[in-house]
Amino acid sequence: MFVFTYIAVFALAMRLRRSLKFTALYQKWNLPLNLIGWGAVAMFLLFAKAVKNDEIHGIAAALALAGVLYYLQNQPDFKSFGILLKAHYPLVAVAVTVELISLIDESFYDKYDDFFQSAYFVAFGYIFIRLATSKKQQAELKRINERKDELELMVAERTAEITKQRNALQETVKELQATQAQLIQQEKLASLGELTAGIAHEIQNPLNFVNNFSEVSMELIEEMEEEMAKGDLEEATAIANDIKQNLEKIRHHGKRADGIVKGMLQHSRASSNIKEPANLNTIADEYFRLAYHGLRAKDKSFNADLVTNFDQSLPLINIVSQDVGRVLLNMFTNAFYAVHQKQKTLGPDFKPRVEVATRVIGKQVEIIVRDNGSGIPDAIKDKIMQPFFTTKPAGEGTGLGLSLSYDIIVKAHKGSINIDSKEGEGTAFIITLPLA
Amino acid sequence: MKILVVDDEADVQPLFLQRFRKEIKNHEVEFDFAQSGEEALNYLKDKHSEVVLILSDINMPGMSGIELLTHIREDFPTPPPPVVMMITAYGDDENYKQAMDKGADDFLTKPLDFNLLKEKLKTL
């Protein structure tokens, strides 16, 4: 029966050879596997002649098979053939056991020889049954592996794509941030442009006073000298007193101009974002006048009643004053624009009026900018805070004023902006800022 | 000669008083002041017959100088009407034309040339 063992070795070698045929390993293993296969045939022929004892020959064949299996199993190249190799174990075991039994007790063997021969058959047959199922499994495994590779490839592709998209998006975000910063700066400059005329007017006035009071003081000094020459010390002292007052006025108006220039520079400078205690009334008043004169300078026919109702008990509050100033400037400019538009349509019968008021309510400060202008139509009420939304003709408004105001008041100062507007009757913007 | 100066800037008052120091001392002129168009109209209600000259800024919050001028010409037409000189920082043609159309007698630009103003007063 041991011929089965040889057949198994030969078949195994040939099968492995065939399996490797179209792989890179074929070159390496073609010869060794041929040697094993044909070696088995050679051994069979040799041992058949040389060894008279069939049992010994059978054990030798089984050991040869075991040796081949042991050798192959230790080769990393045959790792994936584990199932095939293991399928030979029963044959080795059966061969050794059966031959040993036959060797030890031949009569016992002969008595049950059908059974022992069947065992050989079964063990031999098992290899092929196992092989058939493992082939199926391998095919399945191969299919799964292929699918896996395919999926991994797809995943890699998708990942690359997503990474590319993410990078592109990050670039876009960066660009948008840069553009936003630029737009904010442009909006600042645009509002500065609106202010320029107002600023010029506001500076011209104090400068006129500085010039006038210094001129008149020179005249007064001459007069004083005359009086002193005459010996009228009383009059000379009175004049000296006037001169002193004038110098005080010169200083006052010089400082006024100084403050306006400083405010202007601050307005266009990038925000420091540092909150400092500030007097809202002063800021509101300053920008109220600047906005008014700014529009006045552009359109001489424009005039409006400027009403201020400041709560004088207003405490200092922590704000980035230049930012809040910009918000107020924007609100004032809008209010003046609204009343001006209405004035254009209604003519001289309409009395434009813009009011700014401050008051403390609980733990909050309210700044109300109210106009009796054209009002905001309901249809656009929820749009006016959106960036780039403007009702002004192209080129006149950036559409960023209120959107930036919202960012400054709501996001940066934790306040709120409410709008109370009736079309045709007027608008009130109510800014609320927390006191602490 | 009584002169009413209308300007929202309060410091205009000491300036005029000092510039016309000698004239005031010699009782050649007398000044009164108003800080808004409304205030000026109120003042004129009682004293329009005394006032010879009104110097008014154009650019004021509330009632503008031009509006004040219109009111003066409408409300106080009785002869002799006061001389009204408009003063403005914006000395452009449009402003000038508007002031003259509404019946201003003269048009002065800021900064005020007081010597020129004094010359003009002599001709009144």
Q: Which sequence of strands runs across the widest sheet of chain B?
A: 2-1-3-4-5
Major sheet characteristics of chain A? 5 strands, mixed
Task: List the secondary-structure elements of chain B in sequence, H or E.
Answer: EHHEHEHEHEH
Q: Which two chains form the greatest contact, residue counts included?
A: A-B, 28 and 24 residues
Largest sheet of chain B: 5 strands, parallel
CATH topology of chain B: Rossmann fold
Protein name (chain B): CheY-like chemotaxis protein
Modified residues (4-aspartylphosphate) (chain B): 57
Keywords (chain B): Phosphoprotein
Domain Response regulatory (chain B): 2-124
Explain what the structure shows.
Chain A: Pfam families: HATPase_c (PF02518), HisKA (PF00512). Chain A: Residues 198-436 form the Histidine kinase domain. The complex is a heterodimer of chains A (436) and B (124). With 436 residues, chain A is of the alpha+beta class. Chain A has 2 domains: 3-156; 273-436, Heat Shock Protein 90, CATH 3.30.565. In chain A, 69% of the residues lie in helices and 10% in strands. Chain A has helices spanning 3-20, 26-50, 54-73, 82-86, 89-104, 106-111, 113-230, 233-268, 280-298, 321-346, 401-412; strands at residues 276-278, 305-309, 317-319, 353-361, 364-371, 416-422, 426-434. In chain A, the strands form 2 sheets. Chain A has a 5-stranded mixed beta sheet, with helices on one face. A two-stranded antiparallel sheet of chain A has the order 1-3. The model of chain A has no long low-confidence stretch (mean pLDDT 86). Chain B has helices spanning 12-19, 21-25, 37-47, 65-75, 93-101, 114-122; strands spanning 2-6, 30-34, 51-57, 83-88, 106-109. A 5-stranded parallel beta sheet of chain B has the order 2-1-3-4-5, sandwiched between helices. Chain B is globular, with a radius of gyration of 13 Å. By secondary structure, chain B is α/β, with parallel strands linked by helices. In chain B, 43% of the residues lie in helices and 22% in strands. Chain B contains 6 helices and 5 strands. Chain B has a single domain (2-122), classed as Rossmann fold (3-Layer(aba) Sandwich). Chain A binds chain B through residues 201, 204-205, 207-209, 211-213, 216, 220, 223, 242, 245-246, 249, 252-253, 292-293, 296-297, 300-301, 303-306, and chain B through 9, 11, 14-15, 18-19, 21, 59, 61-64, 66-67, 89-90, 92, 94-95, 98, 110-112, 114.
